[in-house]
Specification:
With 164 residues, the protein is of the alpha+beta class. The protein has 2 domains: 69 residues, HSP40/DNAj peptide-binding domain (Sandwich); 59 residues, Alpha-Beta Plaits (2-Layer Sandwich), CATH 3.30.70.790. 16% of the residues lie in helices and 32% in strands. The longest helix has 13 residues. The radius of gyration is 18 Å and the shape is elongated.
Length: 164
């Protein structure tokens, strides 16, 4: 079994293995899954870590594993009027459903009730299979990649109740 416990640096070798995970699975810091090779893998990252498509991880045997957003059953929401799309996003958010905002469209996990509501608002709703990367929200912590400004104390990492 392969163990993944840390992020690979930008200068790490090319990834040789792929770990395909859904949006929900990428939110778990502890997870058992399978790589594209079929090998069993255990993910043990710091609590609060949320993996993103393209993240790279070190395996315990020194190989680099690339995280890939898996295809999921989603609803693609479109409208000719941008205000209608904004209203749709409001109603989805008001129900605390995860939402990906694209240019001229919204994506959300398949949900018959939300699909009916969005159609009633006048949106076009289509079932699709696609990778999903929901908005993380204003209070999202989790992992981020350090850049030079942060290393020198110039960057800002948001935290709940981080005052001054």
């Amino acid at each position: 079994m392969i163990l993944l416990t840390s992020f690979a640096d930008a200068d790490a070798p090319q990834a040789v293995l792929t770990l395909s995970l859904t949006w929900q699975e990428r939110a778990y810091s502890r997870l058992q899954s399978r790589l594209s090779s079929g090998d069993a893998v255990i993910l043990m990252l710091p609590h609060g870590t949320h993996l993103q498509d393209g993240d790279r991880l070190w395996s315990d045997d020194g190989r680099v594993v690339q995280v890939e957003a898996a295809l999921e059953s989603l609803l693609r929401v479109e409208a000719d009027d941008p205000r209608l799309l904004l209203r749709a996003a409001y109603h989805v958010g008001n129900r605390h459903a995860p939402l990906q905002v694209g240019e001229g469209f919204l994506l959300l996990p398949e949900d018959e009730l939300l699909a009916a509501l969005l159609r009633q608002l006048g949106c076009r709703v289509t079932a699709v299979r696609a990778p999903f990367e929901a908005e993380r929200g204003a209070y999202a912590g989790g992992h981020h990649h350090h850049d030079e400004d942060e290393e020198e104390g110039k960057g800002h990492t948001p935290h709940i109740h981080a005052f001054g």
